[in-house]
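User: Quick sanity check before I run a bigger batch. Here is a single chain. Can you write out its predicted 3D structure?
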Amino acid sequence: MKPFICFVGTRHSVASVESHSSTILDVRFQPGTNIFATASADTTVKLWDANKPKTALSDFVGHNWRVRSLDFHPSGRFLCSSDAEDVIKVWDVNQQVLFGTHEVGGSKVRFQPGSGSLLAVANRNVIAILDSSSYKFLYHLMGHDNDVYSICWDVTGSMIASVSDDGVRVWSVLKNGQCLYNYRLSHGRFQSVIFHPRYNDVLVVGGFMSLEVLILEKAKICIARGPSLSINGLAATTAQSECIASVSNQSNSMVNIWK
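Assistant: Done. Predicted structure follows.
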């Protein structure tokens, strides 16, 4: 229920004093700042400063159900959050007011990097691509048999990677959502995915007892495996440091930093 902040350079970490009243389900940084937001099952979104994490900067209240996901627009001005009733709320971060409400939500929401003109919304086994100015559907990415657990844009905003129990898929928004790559599972269960911070044709995929590097046009290469490793969250730094962080929802979980 409390955000846990890790400073990658110093390996220092600290937890906030203030907390949500229920589980935190998603966390995202405001682009170019130390400000981050948390989405919680307590129906609220909180804004925090990583340099002063004891108490939240502000609360966004308005959802009636648990907030499953959130993301900042690349401009940093707007924040969208999606709840369990598939309602997306858009907030003006500077004014700290509700900007709009749209019944188009899902389990994960991610703005397109760069222009932020598109919003990807994962809802069960389908990923919807929306116009982020009107929140109207443009097209749907269909092919997964099971619920999508994680989605991630590449840095150019031209491709989306997604994972579910049945495997990993990579889609092109330049080709109206065409599926470019489809990797079926041979073992375990995938739970999270990110693009490598430096190589645009490489995915890092986390799952039950595995962390894998997947080269899009070649075979996947396992780089870590163990009975106590179950990765359900991944994040990447900028290309300069090429660090990747992973977390688990196990009771003895910790944050691991990979180079």
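The two ends are 28 Å apart (CA to CA).

User: Great, the batch can go ahead then.
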